[in-house]
Amino acid sequence: MSRYVLRYAGSTPRHAESGVDTAMVVSRAGAKVIDDAPDMLLVEASASTARTIAHLLPEWQINAEAMTAVPRVPRPVVRATPRARRR
Q1: Are 59 and 8 in contact (CB under 8 A)?
Q2: What confidence tens digit (pLDDT) does each residue in 38-73 have?
Q3: Which pTM does this prediction carry?
Q4: 3-class SS of residue 4
Q5: Inter-residue contact 43 to 2 (CB < 8 Å)
Q6: Are 26 and 6 in contact (CB under 8 A)?
Q7: 3-state DSSP helix/strand/coil percent for the chain, to nearest 5?
Q8: Which pLDDT score, from 0 to 100, does residue 77 have?
Q9: Which of 1, 38, 80, 87 has its CA 20 to 30 A from that of 49?
């Protein structure tokens, strides 16, 4: 099972939809809703279920979840002895 992000991309505000409960449509298609936000859902589903959801919800974009690694930041070095002042 893979994770997919569904984002609402319709022209009307989501709250003005015609009573469609997106989480219910996703769960009936066989996917598991992991997290939800006003215009976004994180679901866990197989690839075929994700394609089914894409057909059932045409105003929603579905993309595979992408993880971005945190870049390595050089750590500051503590010097053993203080520098002498130059004049």
Answers
A1: yes
A2: 889 999 999 999 999 999 998 899 999 999 999 999
A3: 0.71
A4: strand
A5: no
A6: yes
A7: 25, 30, 50
A8: 85
A9: 38
